[in-house]
Amino acid sequence: MLELINVFTAYGSVPVLKNVSIEVPEGSITCLLGSNGAGKSTTINTILGFVKPKSGSVIFCGEDITGKATETIVHKGIGVVPEGRRVFPKMTVEENLLVGACACKDKGKIAQNIERAYTLFPRLAERRTQNAGTMSGGEQQMLAISRALMSDPKILLLDEPSLGLAPLVVNDIFDTIAKLNKDGTTVLLIEQNGFKALEMAHRGYLMQKGEIIACCTENTGEAKEQLKAAYLRHHSGEAK
Amino acid sequence: MTIELIVQQILNALGLGIMYALIAVGFTLFFGVIEVVNFAHGEVFMLGAFVALLSGGILTSIGLTMGSVPYFLGILVLVLLTGSIFGILLERFIVRPMRGAPDIMTLLITLGASIITREAVMLFVPNGRNPQPFPKLFDVDSINIGGVLIKPETILCIILSAVLISGLYYIIEKTTFGRYIRATAQDREAAMMMGINVKKVFIITLALGSALGAVAGLMNGLSYGIIKFNMGFAAGIKGFAAAVVGGLGNVYGAIAGGMLLGFLEIFVVSTVPDGSSYQDLISFVIVILCLVFRPAGIFGERAYEKV
Description:
The structure holds two protein chains of two kinds.
Chain A: E1 2-11, E2 14-24, E3 29-34, H1 40-47, E4 55-60, E5 63-64, H2 70-75, E6 78-81, H3 93-100, H4 107-120, H5 122-126, H6 137-149, E7 155-159, H7 167-182, E8 186-191, H8 195-200, E9 203-208, E10 211-216, H9 221-239
Parallel strand pairs in A: 3-8, 3-9, 6-7, 7-8
Antiparallel strand pairs in A: 1-2, 1-4, 4-5, 9-10
Helix pairs in contact in A: 3-6, 4-6
Chain B: H1 3-34, H2 41-61, H3 69-95, H4 103-124, E1 132-133, E2 143-145, E3 148-150, H5 152-174, H6 176-186, H7 188-193, H8 198-224, E4 226-227, H9 231-246, H10 251-271, H11 279-293
Antiparallel strand pairs in B: 1-4, 2-3
């Protein structure tokens, strides 16, 4: 569904992504692991057109979206849960959801999706008129996920959804992601501490210094163990 | 001072304050949403007044009677259009090419655009160097209501501003596009990730703010009966002062700031001996005091709420 092919991205003359190829098959949870500064967020920024790759291409649903305007890319069916949640702090929960429905023109559908969000997270229903900035991190994350789902995206990009959340809340969030995937949403999950993410993923990539250094394309325990081992090896290697 | 005189001065202050508020709203919108300080904003005020003056002739030549309702509405529409077009041009030729450039460059370029606009009017409008008399809309100078002398123009300006500001409130708070404007002001990148066309938001914001500034120019012409090519400078400074007082980025703060400035000016003019010579000084003093003691505006921290 979403594919990066030999992508090179640079900020000015500093190369960040070097020959990155990632494939997110339809219906899968694909996770991209890597430590701080590995280039995970740049990968998202490249997919979304915030930075244009120097070479390589981004294919979404068979269409080349490389270097298109961000809003054009998003309107094609990509839902984004940005790093650090980025809910609109001075807007109510309901207004945040309505902004999320930007790519959806059907009023009835929007109302339906708002109800769906409130069913998925009853906590949001309680707080529908509260300003998003006054909510807890976990609640904001729920809102960020619901907001991304408002326009019925074909794929959901989650950039470090566990960042800064209590372990119990993280469990909830991950359960929700698994549930959404079961209902048919394709997921690209980007995580720093990714063992948990890897558990529920069908595919995993490990990124370091802008390169994919390991991947598991099979949904088997063995393949995942190997990726975990690679992750630990490079992590401890970096620490030295 | 008699009660009648006080009421009269309050109405004058209201008329002046709401005019400043209309200019200040533009400054604050541009800063809040686009993060530019647009020093060319004062010129849209001047352009509004000149377009009103020049279009008056055109409208009478197509058969509308001067002072009639369609005549006034025609002028109003032309002024709003001029403001919007000026705003759209600013977006296309200044804001868009300067995206990513240091703030100071954008600021200087808007200042340049301001000078170009002002000089162009001076050179190309017939007899543009001299003050132009602005035709009166009403036959009567003032209406006497229970001893209070009120200029009909003042009433018209207050009503018109109230309508425009309510319209702006409605657009920003109640419409889908207004929601996109607020989202962009609060977090531009997140807004883009939601699929909001930020470029369109910028264009509409500049058009909206500039249109309101142009109407303020029309009101100035109506209220004082005289306009000049360099009137945008002082108006710009005052609008900016009002926006700073209200907290840059806060629309309702800007309206309050404009009102405050209007009331202060009228208060000084009417109570201090020879007060009118200090009128233009007040806004500068206020800006300085505000920047020193309340840099976030008189509403304190809440003023950082953008739009």
